Amino acid sequence: MDATRVLVTGASGFIAKHIVLQLVEAGYRVRGTVRRDAKAEEVSGMLRRHGGDAALFEPHLADLTSDAGWDEAMIGCDLLVHTASPFPRSQPREKFGLVDVARGGTVRVVGAAVRAGVSRVVLTSSIASIVYGHPGRGERWFGEADVSNVESSDISPYAVSKTLAERAAWEAVDGTRTELTTINPSLVFGPLLDRTMGTSVQLIAMMMSGRLPVLPDVTFGIVDVRDVAAAHVAALTASKAAGRRLVVSAEERSLLDIARQVAEGHPAFAGRVPRRRLPTWAVKAAAVVSPPARMLAAELGRTKRLETAPAREILGLAFRSGDEAIDAAASSLLAEGLVTP
């Protein structure tokens, strides 16, 4: 009998490559969507480099902004992992500026999956669709019942796009036989499989390059990309995962704590890694005229606690430590020549 075929969208992305590798290692056949032929070869090369069977990977050209190719992409696929979504290096000024691509792409992809009779969709969402726009929540816990408030003035365009894209996915499967699970990770660190950096890992690269002399007093959840990928793979078949929003995060760390771990694990970079906190008054002063600063000011001094027990129990996960995720990211940046001492 042929192996189960899984469609993975945005297969050349940082998280997606780890998912593709783990799926191939588990014996799945993977059809991966990419926007260019060069990206297809990049994924195949990654598999060969890390001992995966590249023959189990089949590329398919498709773009989130176009209807073309998505029905064809679903042919013969039993399962879907939808990872493709815009994550810009800089936020647009318009709060809803990323929504059309993120939500429109989700509607196209999930709609095609429903038409094809795909049994389960696993969507790469984010804690950004859960924790933002809730003033006064302080250090209360956040979990799958929480939804970011897109009308808040303190929410970023990225968080708005992830929230509305996830909402669109739930609406697309409502009343159908297609099951949906969302994986909602925090900041994703961990090792690179090639020179493709996730946006979160770029933060560590900037620290190691001396491009961040000071850091704001902001705390985030962090998680290793290998655990994020494992969550997606497990969610494809875990019966209790259907209909759930599963928060995936190992622990919370401030930006300065992350920087200290980078310096401790890689002493050659200690002189470049930031050690000073950006004064709160400076962020709040900038918030008067700058929307990005206003969003940052809303997070100063806050620690958002994340409920990860459902992901651990339903998916059978044991998360790697934050130290391991940070050290692996920094080591692979060095190994790939993306940062130099």
TrEMBL record:
Keywords: Oxidoreductase. Signal peptide: none annotated. InterPro entries: Epimerase_deHydtase, NAD(P)-bd_dom_sf, NAD(P)_dehydrat-like. Coiled coil: none annotated. The keyword Oxidoreductase applies. GO terms for molecular function: dihydroflavanol 4-reductase activity. Residues 6-244 form the NAD-dependent epimerase/dehydratase domain. Belongs to the NAD(P)-dependent epimerase/dehydratase family. Dihydroflavonol-4-reductase subfamily. This is Dihydroflavonol-4-reductase. It comes from Aureimonas pseudogalii. The lineage of its organism: Bacteria, Pseudomonadati, Pseudomonadota, Alphaproteobacteria, Hyphomicrobiales.
